Amino acid sequence: MRIDGRKPNELRPLRFKRNFTKQAPGSVLVSCGKTTVLCTCTIEQSVPPFLLGKGKGWLSAEYSMLPGSTGRRKPRDRAGKVDGRSVEIQRLIGRSLRAIVNLEKLGERTLWIDCDVLDADGGTRTASINGAFVAMVDALRSLEKKPSDKPLAPINEILKDSIAAISLGIVDNKVLLDLCYEEDAGAEVDSNLVMTGSGMFIEVQASGEESVFDQKQLDSMLKLGKQAIGEIKLEQMKALGSNWPLD
User: Fold this and answer.
1) CA 29, CA 58: separation in Å to the nearest integer?
2) Which of 96, 170, 172, 221 has a beta carbon 3.0–4.6 Å from 189's, enabling a disulfide?
3) Strand order in the sheet with 58-65
4) What residues are paired with 65 via a beta bridge?
5) Within-domain flag for 146
6) For the chain, how many structural domains are there in total?
């Protein structure tokens, strides 16, 4: 039996609360067990200098943990100094989402994804990706309703697929899905999986924490993670309802 009573292959309760803030065109409060992340998507009608005049858009992501999100206060990032873990995570979020966005169809616009952790209990990076996708869909839907001198392709052409992510690990030689903080802190192997809704891999991270793992354990994590991605996609579809952009 796990710390919170779940089965090894059981997700924590997953919820998406859309339109959580008023200003961002896409804002989602995603909760995964006791982990809570605010994901917003804003759209700029411009692109970085290296893309000017190319008719292509861009997507960039930022991630942070608020000071009160952990048991011990986490200092804020100051004067452009971002800790290494945050840099790693926001790069993961950005490249994962860019994998399912057709930047040529987006036009010369920038999608800004901001993920702020309110409560951290493990799986903050995967929760951020799951919530960011929902926020991005809402932001693009809002753009469809606004007149613009820049042509906008249909959302089902801008988005090539959906995306979801999940954490896994090996604890006491058992493969577990969706680790909470206590499990993650004691895991022999830590893994994160990012996939499209159609079942294609975007990122596979797996590392031994003072331990090793074999092919059978890796295959077990991938199989369990793929099943979980399907469950998360269904929750994203349920949350978006008629706004779901894909067939």
Assistant:
1) 24
2) 170
3) 14-18, 26-32, 35-44, 110-119, 58-65
4) 117
5) yes
6) 1
Q: Please name which of 186, 183, 190 lies closest in space to residue 207, comparing C-alpha atoms.
A: 190
Structural domain includes residue 196: yes
Query: How far is 143 from 155, CA to CA, in rounded Å?
Result: 10
Round to whole Å and give the CA distance between 187 and 207. Answer: 10
Q: What is the CATH number of the domain that holds 137?
A: 3.30.230.70
Domain range for 159 is 14-70+85-243
Report the sign of the C-alpha dihedral through residues 88, 90, 96, 102, in that order.
negative
In a domain, 211, yes or no: yes
Cα–Cα dist 124/32, whole Å:
9
CA 114/CA 131 separation, integer angstroms: 10
* DSSP H or E stretch at residue 221: helix 215-240
The tokens for 220 are 């077990």
Per-residue pLDDT of the chain (247 residues; tens, 9 = 90+): 798 999 999 999 999 999 999 999 999 999 999 999 999 999 999 999 999 999 999 999 999 999 999 999 988 877 667 788 899 999 999 999 999 999 999 999 999 999 999 999 999 999 999 999 999 999 999 988 876 767 789 999 999 999 999 999 999 999 999 999 999 999 999 999 999 999 999 999 999 988 999 999 999 999 999 999 999 999 999 999 999 999 8
Terminal alpha carbon distance of the chain: 39
Angle between helices 124-144 and 215-240 in degrees, nearest 10: 30
Q: How far apart (Å, rounded) are the C-alpha atoms in residues 47 and 72? A: 38
Note whether 102 and 157 are within 8 A (CB): yes
